[in-house]
Hints:
Blueprint: H1 3-12, H2 18-25, E1 31-36, E2 41-44, H3 46-51, H4 71-87, E3 91-97, E4 105-114, E5 120-130, H5 137-152, H6 160-167, H7 171-182, H8 186-204, H9 209-215, H10 221-232, H11 236-248
Antiparallel strand pairs: 1-2, 1-5, 3-4, 4-5
Amino acid sequence: MTPLQFQRQFLARIGDIAPFRHLMDLVPDVAFFMKDHAGRFVMHNRRSCEFFRKNHEREILGKTDYDFFSKEHAALYVQGDQEVMTSGRPIINALAPAPETSDQMIVYSKVPVYDKHRRVIGVAGIHRVVDGLRDTPHWYGRFSDVLKHIHRHFDEELDLALLAVRAGVSQSQLERRFRQLLGTSPGEYILRVRVNASRELLENTDRTVADIAQAVGFYDNSHFTRSFRRRMSCSPKQYRDLHRQIRSGHPKGGVRS
């Protein structure tokens, strides 16, 4: 039995998601939610209920954003849901006005939810309020545009000065906003996106490590290897070898960095 088969077999035996609900409720500042294809709420954690000013998720289940928020806010949230369900691609670290107030904003991520036949049946997501940040909705859109640009063009040269222009702020302001919103610098965020993209290519293609490095935006193979090792605790080649061993059902032990 392969590790993945072992995992799937165990998860298929789970009859109650109560332990997972309990863990989600223990996360104090992150709201979790799930909706069906029609936008009706299916699940919430405690923090998410607080956004609705409700004591229990049963007061929210089966309803939609339009039952609780302004038409403008609800339309914005639903637009993101539809984008994820239609494309099958997640939205990662985007910005939107907070549901509770108009002078705060949230950082959110959404992923498609599939049934057993790999059909999209809904969307799940998390979000958290960014404290201490007061900006106009126009700026929210500009920063979201910067993040979308990075995720769409990570394989190209990304100049921080040009990203700052796109955001409508100075480069130093862009650095501060990244750290405040995402806990990292713009440069580190770009490296993280590139390394994550390289993992998929290492797992699913036979392209050389040098070719993959260039494909995800690294123009120096040694820089790619150092960046990958720092985040994954192994080299790209070691990562590929371990993944192939796991897929074949013959893992030979852990990878040593």
